[in-house]
Amino acid sequence: MKDFRPIxxxxxxxxxxxxxxxxEAVEDYRAKKNKGCILKLDLEKAFDCxxxxxxxxxxxxxxxxxxxxxxxxxxxxxxxxxxSWKKSALSGVNISEDILLQIVDRIGYxxxxxxxxxxxxxxxxxxxxxxxxxxxxxxxKKLNRWKPVNISRGxxxxxxxxxxxxxxTYYLSWFSIPQNVAISLEKxxxxxxxxxxxxxxxxxxxxxxxxxxLKGGGLGLEGLKTHNFALLVKWGGRFVMED
Length: 243
Hints:
Elements: H1 15-31, E1 36-40, E2 43-45, H2 52-61, H3 63-67, H4 75-78, E3 81-83, E4 89-93, H5 97-107, E5 110-111, E6 116-118, E7 121-123, H6 129-143, H7 153-164, H8 169-172, H9 179-193, H10 207-210, H11 224-242
Parallel strand pairs: 4-5
Antiparallel strand pairs: 1-4, 2-3, 6-7
């Protein structure tokens, strides 16, 4: 299952907090030169793999299942979940590849190098240019479907604000974007806005003026560094409010 665990004691989702904790744990292991492993278990729905007759008999044999169906060793089956062994993997932190392969051979999982994908984010990765390359590739792929010359400048402004600026937001909510990556992404946006995605065109107005808010005479195309800072500050405000 991609979103939630089968059992939860509250009505809240801890996916975001889990990623922060896990990523900090990896960084702590690296900083202290500790050795460890990350076991990623992929759960999938198992509607076609459940024997309902067997489950009904099992529930009848244990009184606890009648009152608390989410408890007990059969709870994963009651929630129609099973481990997808083909998609599960083991990754090592400060462990040599030879040792990791020996562990994998014994437990039957496949080995994956860090970073690994978790809720759409690279867990255990370094926020460098290569780290942000999937975002850059996604924007290039999206722009290839559009023809800027056939879109009015007002339409390109809407696309820049609603689509191009939204693609990096998920990454920007978790990681500090490097200056060179921010410049590259803003260059893509700037060239698309001035009708020249593949080739640099003459900018009619300085981009720092275009990026100003509407009240300041700009078009409200917020800079990525400013947007990144605002998203990261929200985490600090959230922790203060929850404490």
